[in-house]
C-alpha cells in the first residue's frame, strides 16, 4: 500500500525568514509555543538573532549529540557567512558532559565557575551575539550548585532571565513530567507581574517542536495564563522555501527490517551511487544489534562499503568515535553527513543531520509523534523521496494508532495528499489514545504530576543558598499553588519528628524526596561492558539482563563487566521478561527499606508498603494525617524517595 505526500513549502520574506521564524524573534509575548514541520528552520531563527541582531541565546536541547551538532553547525554557518573561525567560535559555547570532559582534559578545574561567567558573557566587551547550547541537566545544576563558592552566590534563575534575550527549549515534546520544573520556573518568573514590570528579566521563552505537546493547561497550573502565551504555527504554502518534495509513503508487512533491507538492496545501492544517503530506523536496539553481523556480510556482496556505514544508537554513542567489529563506524562524534548509509534507532529522531536522505526504511516508533519525527527526516529541501514503513501484524493488533494509520493509507492508496493530512491523522490518533482532553493538532500532554514536580523544584530553589534576601522574597511571592500545597504536606509529615526516635528518618525521607526533583529525566543505570579487544560500551542494565547472558557469565565490578569475545556471543534465544529495574524505597518512619519494581505501579505499591514496613515503629491511627500527607506527596508528584540498588543512599542525599 502506498500514497504520496505532496511537496510543501513555507513562505519566505525579503530577509529570508518565514513568518514563524520572524514571529519567534519579534512576537511581544514572553512565552511562545512554536509548531512547525521538521526542516522548517525553527532553530535557524535564533541563529539569525545572534548573527543579525547581536542577541544572546540559551538553547536547551535534550541530547548531547543534538547539542554538539547544533553548536558545530552554528560555527560552520557563521564562518560561511564571512566570519573568521576565531570570531565564530568565540560566540558559541557547549554545555554538556562531553564538553565537561574536554575541559577537564585541558586542566580546567572550576567548570561551574567558568559556566557561571559564561552566563554573563562569552566574550567580554563584544557586541556580537552569543549562543550557549546546553542539555537541561547542566543548566539545572548551575541553579542548584551543591557548594556555593565565593563570588557565585548571586547567580541564579534571575540572572539567566536578565542576561539572555532568548531561552529556548528545543524538541520540548521530550520533556518528562518530573523534568518540567526548570521550564516552569522560567515561564512563571518571565510572566510574573511585579512593581512596574510584567516579568523578571528580558528573556523570551520559546518551546519548539514538530510534534508539540498540549502545554497550556500545565502552564496555567503553575501560574502562566493562556493569554500570556503566543501559540505560533508555520503556515504551509505551495510556492516558497521547500521543506520536502513529493514523498511516496509505502506501508509493508515484512517479517523484519532486515528482510526489508534485503528486498530493497538495489534501491539502496542506487541511492548511494547517486551520492545520496539512505537511512534505516529500527524500533528495537536488540534487533539492530543482532542484525549488524549479517548486514556486515551481505553489504559488500551488494557493493556497499561497510566503512561508509554509520551505526547510531544509545550503546554505540556511548563512545566518541570508533569501529564496530563488523567494520561499521560508531560513536557520537562521527559526522553523519560523511556516510552513505545510517543504521539507527530512535536516537536519530533528534540531533542527526542527514545528507540528501531521500530513501528511508523504518519501523513506526512507539507513538504517533515518533512516526512523524522519523518521516520528517527524509527528502528535505524540496527533494522527492520515498519512505517505506514496516508494519507488523502483531503491532497493528496491539496499538490502535497503528491501525488508524494503516486504515488511512489503505483508504487513500495511489492518491496524493498533503503533509497536513498526515499530521492530522497522527495527531487525532494521539488525541484518541489520551484519556484527558487535548488540544487539536497536539501529540501528547504532560501528566498532572508535572505541575506538582514543578512546585517541588520551586521549593528546592527557594531554600537554596543562591536565593537569599530579595531573590528568596521574589520566589516566595510568585511560587505556584502546587509549591504551596507541597510545603503544607511536607510540614504534616514533619510532625512525625515530634517523636525524637523518628526525627532522623523523617529528615532523610524528605531529603530523598526533594532529591528526586533534581533528576529531570528517568535515566536507567548503565553498565560498561568491555570486550576482549578492550573496547567498552555502556549498556542499560535491565536491557543487558533481559537480552543477554552477560550478567550470568561474568562478574560485575564497579559498574563494569569484562567479557570474553563480544556481546554478540551472548544473546538469549528469548528475552528474560523477569529482568526489571528495581528501586530501593525509603519511608519516613523507619530505617527499613523495601525493594520494588520500578514501573508504572511503583507509586501504588509504595503507598501500600508504607503501612506494612516496620509497623511497630509508629501508630498510624494516631499519625493518620502524616500518613496521608506522605502518600499524597508521592501520588501528586509520582516521585518515590529512594535510589537504585547499587547507589548508596548517602550519594543521593548529599546533593542537598
UniProtKB/TrEMBL annotation:
Record-linked InterPro entries: DEAD/DEAH_box_helicase_dom, DEAD_box_RNA_helicase, Helicase_ATP-bd, P-loop_NTPase
Keyword field contains Transmembrane helix: no
Protein's recorded name: CRISPR-associated helicase Cas3, subtype CYANO
Organism: Allochromatium warmingii (Chromatium warmingii)
Pfam families found in the cross-reference section: DEAD
Record's GO cellular component terms: cytosol
Residue span, Helicase ATP-binding domain: 23-230
Stored PANTHER family: ATP-DEPENDENT RNA HELICASE DBPA, ATP-DEPENDENT RNA HELICASE RHLE-RELATED
Keywords: ATP-binding, Helicase, Hydrolase, Nucleotide-binding
Kinase listed as a keyword: no
Gene Ontology MF term list: ATP binding; hydrolase activity; nucleic acid binding; RNA helicase activity
Record SMART domains: DEXDc
Amino acid at each position: 500500500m502506498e500514497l504520496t505526500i505532496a511537496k510543501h513549502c513555507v513562505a519566505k520574506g525579503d530577509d529570508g525568514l518565514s513568518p514563524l521564524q520572524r514571529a519567534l524573534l519579534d512576537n511581544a509575548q514572553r512565552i511562545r509555543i512554536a509548531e512547525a514541520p521538521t526542516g522548517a528552520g525553527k532553530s535557524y531563527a535564533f541563529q539569525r538573532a545572534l548573527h543579525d541582531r547581536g542577541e544572546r541565546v540559551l538553547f536547551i536541547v535534550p541530547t548531547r549529540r543534538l547539542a554538539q551538532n547544533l553548536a558545530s553547525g552554528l560555527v560552520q554557518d557563521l564562518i560561511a557567512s564571512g566570519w573568521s573561525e576565531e570570531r565564530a567560535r568565540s560566540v558559541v559555547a557547549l554545555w554538556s558532559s562531553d564538553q565537561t570532559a574536554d575541559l577537564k582534559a585541558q586542566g580546567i578545574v572550576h567548570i561551574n565557575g567558568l559556566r557561571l561567567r559564561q552566563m554573563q558573557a562569552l566574550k567580554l566587551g563584544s557586541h556580537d551575539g552569543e549562543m550557549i547550547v546546553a542539555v537541561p541537566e547542566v543548566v539545572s545544576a548551575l541553579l542548584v550548585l551543591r557548594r556555593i563558592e565565593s563570588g557565585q552566590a548571586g547567580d541564579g534563575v534571575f540572572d539567566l532571565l536578565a542576561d539572555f534575550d532568548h531561552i529556548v527549549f528545543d524538541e520540548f515534546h521530550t520533556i518528562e513530567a518530573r523534568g518540567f520544573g526548570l521550564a516552569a520556573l522560567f515561564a512563571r518568573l518571565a510572566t510574573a507581574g511585579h512593581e512596574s514590570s510584567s516579568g523578571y528579566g528580558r528573556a523570551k521563552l520559546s518551546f519548539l517542536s514538530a510534534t508539540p505537546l498540549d502545554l497550556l493547561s500545565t502552564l496555567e497550573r503553575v501560574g502562566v495564563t493562556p493569554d500570556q502565551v503566543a501559540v505560533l504555527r508555520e503556515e504551509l504554502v505551495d510556492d516558497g522555501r521547500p521543506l520536502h518534495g513529493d514523498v511516496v509513503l509505502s506501508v509493508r508487512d515484512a517479517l523484519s527490517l532486515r528482510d526489508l533491507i534485503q528486498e530493497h538492496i538495489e534501491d539502496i545501492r542506487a541511492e548511494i551511487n547517486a551520492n545520496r544517503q539512505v537511512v534505516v530506523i529500527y524500533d528495537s536496539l536488540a534487533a539492530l544489534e543482532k542484525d549488524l553481523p549479517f548486514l556486515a556480510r551481505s553489504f559488500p556482496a551488494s557493493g556497499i562499503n561497510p566503512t561508509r556505514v554509520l551505526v547510531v544508537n544509545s550503546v554505540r554513542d556511548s563512545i566518541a568515535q570508533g569501529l564496530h567489529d563488523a567494520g561499521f563506524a560508531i560513536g557520537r562524534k562521527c559526522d553523519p553527513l560523511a556516510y552513505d548509509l545510517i543504521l539507527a534507532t530512535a536516537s536519530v529522531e533528534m540531533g542527526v543531520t542527514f545528507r540528501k536522505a531521500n530513501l528511508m526504511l523504518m519501523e513506526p516508533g512507539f507513538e504517533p509523534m515518533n512516526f512523524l519525527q522519523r518521516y520528517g527526516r527524509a527528502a528535505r529541501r524540496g527533494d522527492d523521496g520515498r519512505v517505506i514503513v514496516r508494519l507488523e501484524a502483531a503491532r497493528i493488533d496491539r496499538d490502535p494508532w497503528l491501525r488508524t494509520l494503516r486504515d488511512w493509507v489503505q483508504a487513500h492508496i495511489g492518491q496524493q495528499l498533503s503533509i497536513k493530512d498526515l499530521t492530522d491523522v497522527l495527531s487525532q490518533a494521539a488525541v484518541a489514545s489520551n484519556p484527558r482532553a487535548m488540544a487539536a493538532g497536539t501529540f501528547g500532554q504532560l501528566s498532572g504530576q508535572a505541575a506538582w514536580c514543578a512546585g517541588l523544584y520551586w521549593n528546592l530553589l527557594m531554600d537554596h543558598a543562591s536565593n537569599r534576601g530579595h531573590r528568596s522574597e521574589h520566589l516566595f511571592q510568585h511560587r505556584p499553588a502546587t509549591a504551596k500545597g507541597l510545603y503544607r504536606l511536607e510540614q504534616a509529615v514533619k510532625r512525625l519528628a515530634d517523636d525524637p526516635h523518628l526525627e532522623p528518618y523523617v529528615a532523610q525521607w524528605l531529603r530523598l524526596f526533594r532529591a528526586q526533583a533534581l533528576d529531570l529525566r528517568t535515566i536507567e543505570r548503565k553498565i560498561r561492558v568491555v570486550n576482549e579487544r578492550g573496547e567498552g560500551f555502556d549498556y542499560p542494565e535491565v536491557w543487558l539482563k533481559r537480552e543477554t547472558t552477560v550478567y550470568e557469565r561474568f562478574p560485575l565490578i564497579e559498574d563494569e563487566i569484562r567479557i570474553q569475545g563480544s556481546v554478540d556471543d551472548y544473546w538469549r534465544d528469548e528475552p528474560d521478561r523477569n529482568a526489571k529495574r528495581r528501586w530501593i524505597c525509603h519511608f519516613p518512619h523507619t530505617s527499613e527499606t523495601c525493594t520494588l519494581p520500578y514501573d508504572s505501579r511503583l507509586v501504588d505499591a509504595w503507598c501500600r508498603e508504607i503501612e506494612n514496613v516496620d509497623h511497630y515503629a509508629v501508630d498510624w491511627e494516631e499519625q493518620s494525617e502524616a500518613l496521608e500527607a506522605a502518600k499524597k506527596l508521592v501520588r501528586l508528584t509520582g516521585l518515590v524517595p529512594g535510589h537504585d540498588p547499587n547507589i548508596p543512599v548517602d550519594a543521593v542525599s548529599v546533593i542537598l
